[in-house]
């Protein structure tokens, strides 16, 4: 490259990295893999070092990325929050080891830890109390997310014991376990919203929510991996972290203290295979010199500690051919493009399909028909298309054009300017939308009718159901004519449909499947209105006055009630006896528990059973409470009651009874 070409390449790389930094830290989405990002960063670093005349203090190489959202208060870190140098192979690790040995003469140990793939956080504690929690920000200062952090159950607000330093900062990674991620996406699918790309983006998105109530509902977790302060208890990072565990911090049990770089390489190889078994994502291993005086001696470069490095697992990726694209139609008409690929083996599973998310994703990739694409499966569950081998593209290849008409009902698709998603507007006649609405209606958190996707498909194809209200017209005779139903299963389904009529108003609202009205919004609506007719009559202004309801949700509710077909369905459902108003303040069965504050704790036969017991407390005039205090009258305990509650109860001499004793008390 001549100087002009170098200058252009540097410019191109800087622009590209700035854009990806912004996508990653501000929009919490990523369009390229970490590996590609690192390769680009390394190329830029090399070009800048070799050509210092093109130095720019605002180059992406000159900082650690910026995740600040200025709606949060900014707090300065006591110690800068630096990033780690990355390595991808054993040679680079051996170079790291050699660099350290060149600088320090004495023996030392390594500590290997999992590299959690989430959002980093720094917590400050003074006298055993949480002072604040700050995101990485630009490394010097970050967002004050204390209120959100406090809702994460595994983060101690007050430390255990007395042996902790008076003042220290501890760093950790906020993560979203796979199970919670999958459940959130299942919910999003039901609510017709675009899916979250991966647990890491979801975790940082949730952490930056402005309403901590929503953070508390989303089950984030946090692993801690580094502690800083003037008076740390020992000179070993590993020992300090073990002590931090005793003070109440969640520290990974998979960290190991190792003797030399060969043991480090063994550890890495072990976890490259084992990482699939973890319930959360990791994207590599962090290798640290254990002895803190040696860490100080080694010090930092402007960006990284010299005493630590990360080994990034290369997300397994394969090249395969894009055979075709299918367009899936969701319950709310949202269209998801899916790449059908020539089957390829990736991390032990055959991958045939990968989500292409939306039309913007396809456009950004510049995807052409018959392209050869790279599919990648990192720590993540869903394989994704991360790039294209342009060399393999035929000269006459045509760009992928997003479908214009619904693949199921042929209606012209619509797309809102501000959204990336295309929708099929034919919500009442488009088969997957009808079936999707029925599936949502019968789901456990809605009407809880015991039937699944296959039954809906069967009944729909047999012309027995055409919308949610026709479920209540089904008869046993009709079902018995279908091959899959025997007397017992037909009776069970009818009984379950009948029983669903008892479902409370709030769940009925949720079950209607109004776009963007999930469980939480349904709850907010029911707090404001007592019946469906009032809800139907609310104006835009009245709707947006309700907590958590913004323009988008208000418009969606108005659109729903403006649709004649929806009104007919609601009238039919009313006729069948569904609850479209709040029950009159339920009369108490008795007042035998009046004035009593009762804690229900531990696990019962089912989580449902625990709820029932809590309801009984209220129906008999009692007040249920979540924590044991001197005001607690007694505790109804199931199995494995929490040890802190148990201790408190003992301390305060509070009576503990079991389920049977509770029932006989009511009888
Ligand atoms: S140590 C100076 N340990 O990786 C100490 N970081 O790429 C630097 N991370 O910003 C961090 N797991 O968010 C460390 N066991 C671990 C980690 C870890 C995940 C994250 C952290 C950091 C980033 C660096």
* CATH level 1 name of the largest domain: Alpha Beta
The total domain count is 6
Share of residues in helices: 25-40%
Strand order of the largest sheet: 2-11-10-3-9
Which percent band covers the strand fraction?
15-25%
Strand runs, count: 22
The computed structural class is alpha+beta
| CATH architecture call of the largest domain | 2-Layer Sandwich
> Residue ranges: pLDDT <50 for 5 or more in a row?
none
Query: How many distinct helices?
Result: 24
Largest sheet: 5 strands, mixed
Rg calculated over all Cα atoms:
29 Å
Short description:
By secondary structure, the chain is an alpha+beta fold. 37% of the residues lie in helices and 19% in strands.
Keywords, please?
binds 2-(butylsulfanyl)adenosine; five-stranded antiparallel β-sheet; D-amino Acid Aminotransferase, Chain A, domain 1; five-stranded mixed β-sheet; 667 residues; 37% helix; 19% strand; single chain; alpha+beta; Helix Hairpins
């Amino acid at each position: 490259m001549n100087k002009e070409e170098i200058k252009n390449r540097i410019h191109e790389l800087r622009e590209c990295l700035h854009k990806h930094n912004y996508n990653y830290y501000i929009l919490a989405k990523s369009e390229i893999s970490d590996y590609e990002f690192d390769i680009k960063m390394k190329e830029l670093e090399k070009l800048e070092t070799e050509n210092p005349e093109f130095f720019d203090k605002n180059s992406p190489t000159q900082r650690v990325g910026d995740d600040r959202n200025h709606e949060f208060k900014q707090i300065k870190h006591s110690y800068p929050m630096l990033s780690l140098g990355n390595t991808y192979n054993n040679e680079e690790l051996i170079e790291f080891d050699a660099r350290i040995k060149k600088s320090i003469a004495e023996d030392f140990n390594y500590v290997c830890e999992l590299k959690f793939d989430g959002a980093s956080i720094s917590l400050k504690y003074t006298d055993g109390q949480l002072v604040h929690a700050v995101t990485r920000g630009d490394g010097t200062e970050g967002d004050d997310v204390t209120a959100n952090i406090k809702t994460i159950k595994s983060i101690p607000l007050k430390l255990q014991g007395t042996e902790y330093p008076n003042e220290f900062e501890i760093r950790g990674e906020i993560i979203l376990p796979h199970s919670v991620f999958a459940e959130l996406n299942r919910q999003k699918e039901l609510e017709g919203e675009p899916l979250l790309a991966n647990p890491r983006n979801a975790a940082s998105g949730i952490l930056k929510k402005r309403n901590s109530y929503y953070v508390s509902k989303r089950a984030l977790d946090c692993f801690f991996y580094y502690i800083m302060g003037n008076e740390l208890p020992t000179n070993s990072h590993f020992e300090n972290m073990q002590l931090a565990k005793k003070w109440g911090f969640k520290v990974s049990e998979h960290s190991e203290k190792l003797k030399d770089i060969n043991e480090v390489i063994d550890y890495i190889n072990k976890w490259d295979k084992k990482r699939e078994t973890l319930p959360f994502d990791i994207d590599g291993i962090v290798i640290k010199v254990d002895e803190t005086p040696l860490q100080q001696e080694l010090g930092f470069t402007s960006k990284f500690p010299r005493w630590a490095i990360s080994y990034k697992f290369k997300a397994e990726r394969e090249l395969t051919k894009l055979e075709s694209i299918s367009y899936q139609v969701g319950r709310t008409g949202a269209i998801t493009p899916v790449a059908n690929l020539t089957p390829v083996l990736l991390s032990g599973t055959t991958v045939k399909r990968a989500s292409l998310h939306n039309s913007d994703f396809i456009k950004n990739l510049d995807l052409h028909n018959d392209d050869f694409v790279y599919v990648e499966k990192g720590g993540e569950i869903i394989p994704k298309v991360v790039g294209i081998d342009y060399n393999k593209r035929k000269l006459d290849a045509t760009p992928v054009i997003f479908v214009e008409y619904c693949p199921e009902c042929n209606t012209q698709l619509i797309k809102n300017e501000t959204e990336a998603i295309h929708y099929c507007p034919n919500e009442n006649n488009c088969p997957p939308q009808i079936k999707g609405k029925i599936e949502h209606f019968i789901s456990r958190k809605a009407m809880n009718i015991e039937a699944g996707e296959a039954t809906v498909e069967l009944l729909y194809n047999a012309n027995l159901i055409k919308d949610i209200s026709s479920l209540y017209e089904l008869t046993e005779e009709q079902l018995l004519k279908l091959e899959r139903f025997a007397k017992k299963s037909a009776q069970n389904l009818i009984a379950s449909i009948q029983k669903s009529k008892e479902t409370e108003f709030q769940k009925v609202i949720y079950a209607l499947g109004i776009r963007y009205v999930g469980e939480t919004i349904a709850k907010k609506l029911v707090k404001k209105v007592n019946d469906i007719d009032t809800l139907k009559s609310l104006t835009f202004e009245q709707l947006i006055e309700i907590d958590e309801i913004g323009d988008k949700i208000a418009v969606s509710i108005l659109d729903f009630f403006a649709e004649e077909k929806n009104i007919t369905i609601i009238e039919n459902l009313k006729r069948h006896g569904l609850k479209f108003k709040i029950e009159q303040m339920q009369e108490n069965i008795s007042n035998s528990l009046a004035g009593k504050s009762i804690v229900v704790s531990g696990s019962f036969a089912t989580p449902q059973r625990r709820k029932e017991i809590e309801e009984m407390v209220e129906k008999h005039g009692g007040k249920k409470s979540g924590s044991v205090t001197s005001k607690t009258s007694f505790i109804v305990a199931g199995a494995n009651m929490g040890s802190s509650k148990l201790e408190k109860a003992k301390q305060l001499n509070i009576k503990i009874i079991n389920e049977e004793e509770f029932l006989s008390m009511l009888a």
